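step=predict obj=Microcin C ABC transporter permease YejB n=368
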Amino acid sequence: MLAYVARRLLLIVPTILGIMLVSFVIIQFAPGGPVERVIAEVTGQGTNATDRFSGGSGNDLSPTQRSVSSDPVTSKYRGAQGLDPAFIKQLEKQFGFDRPAHERFLKMVWDYSRFDFGRSYFRDIDVVDLILEKMPVSISLGLWMTLISYLISVPLGVAKAVRDGSRFDVWTSAVIVVGYAIPGFLFAILLVVLFAGGTFFDWFPLRGLTSDNWSQLSLWGKIVDYFWHLTLPLTSLVIAAFATTTLLTKNSFLDEIRKQYVQTARMKGLSENQVLYGHVFRNAMLLLIAGFPGAFIGAFFTGALLIETIFSLDGLGLLGFESVVNRDYAVVFASLFIFSLLSLVVSLISDLSYMWVDPRIDFETRET
């Protein structure tokens, strides 16, 4: 066991390096970049980055910065003609693009190995602090969605397997198919129209995790207020998640129920509950345990972008999307590194749980 865990931990290093290298190479060929973004804003298409680098708005550039130049430095970037080459070099140095690509990658690997993720290009805040700032929303959505979907799906899947072919199985399958077919964001819009002041009722809020007076509420009032804000987003996320897990649970149980050891257990006089939950349940849950890391990571980090946007929740999904759009590579690569590392660790924990549930499985004997 210890040897297997050690091998898996050692494999994390080349895996992370591979992920970061491939992503870094792709970024080098992607159009645009932080320098181009600032240039676009400097030339009149925006003001945020200009305020940071030039000390004013895009219309307040000095004559030196607006001087026409055919310098090779400006010719590298679209829209840079007419800007002072020294200003472009300042931008390149600020973002680290004054170094060759391989030096930038090696520096990034060295910094990340010490968990030094630098600062956001355009938010003027440490990347770690920025991610931690968005964590409460993603933790709330991912954790509760995963928990609720499993609490609904596992009992429902077991019930459908036991009653396979009955009316209960048929009508619950119809509900599941409809729920799976409707995209979560579309269901979210429907909930907003119905229950958040859209057209009919105004029962639920549409912004943030808590109310403005949250600090003044009692402990029970804070709990109620927190879940009051989460009701509609969680409902939107759970719809599709519980459908997939329910069908997977049902099929796993049906496959196990038909096996010979179940018939043997029944012939020995064991009750149906003893057979179902003492023998079938543990074996049928293996697929769910194996799929848990992917489900958890997906729900935690990538599954809520549209939901966060619709309900004005500022979480990691929205942060990642905005960072890619704004070419904030410091946040993009740091998020990729952290989430990849977490995914690999959770995958290892899942395999260990696999072995705990079914002692017959021994990953240590497999060739790696």
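step=describe
Confidence is low (pLDDT under 50) at residues 47-70.
step=end
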